[in-house]
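User: I'm preparing a small set of examples for a lab meeting where we compare how different chains pack in three dimensions. I only have the primary sequence for this one, and I'd like the structure in token form so I can line it up with the others. Please keep the answer compact; I'll paste it straight into my notes.
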Amino acid sequence: MAERGRPRGFDADAALDRAVEVFWRQGYEGASLSDLTDAMGISRTSMYAAYGNKEELFRRAVARYAEADMAYARDALTQPTAYAAIEAFLRANADALTRTDRPPGCLSVQGGLAEGGDNGHTAKFLADSRLAGEQALADRLTRAVAEGDLPAGTDPLALARYVMVVSEGNAVHAAAGAGRVALHATVDIALRAVPGHDGAS
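Assistant: Understood. Below is the structure token output for the 201-residue chain.
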């Protein structure tokens, strides 16, 4: 029997990164166990031992994606004004959606678009993940209203949802082949609706 606690014979983080790419390109339902283990360079037995089942692997892949590929979203929240935070997020998002070293689009949008055989659990998990990001932005915008950076009466949650709709829409278009210039053109238009553009409030 294998000794409990024996070091694995593969780099778990590197294998997880490869799983991220498979889920990103194929979605949760479209990614078979064979696709995943082939890309990760491990056996099914090793996958189950290291990550649990496919659903748990997917959840860990999404967490890895959020940590690495979505770091710009956290950075945007540190901008000094609400407008700067929104612009930083949408600009960095447009760049991230069109990176040449990654699949086009967004894992959290594409990963669960198709309703599969898991009773919608994956789609709900991804929706909850996106809503957490929306809430983080809404919290930042709520503070901006309290500080007078956004006009009194601004609905922080509605504004955060608007920003996420633009981001998620750009993700869908990027996956369909829209380029970086086109996405930034959409951001240009979207930013005109944000209080604080061109110094206005």
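A couple of notes for your slides: DSSP finds ten helices and no strands in the chain. The longest helix spans residues 121-146.

User: Perfect, thanks.
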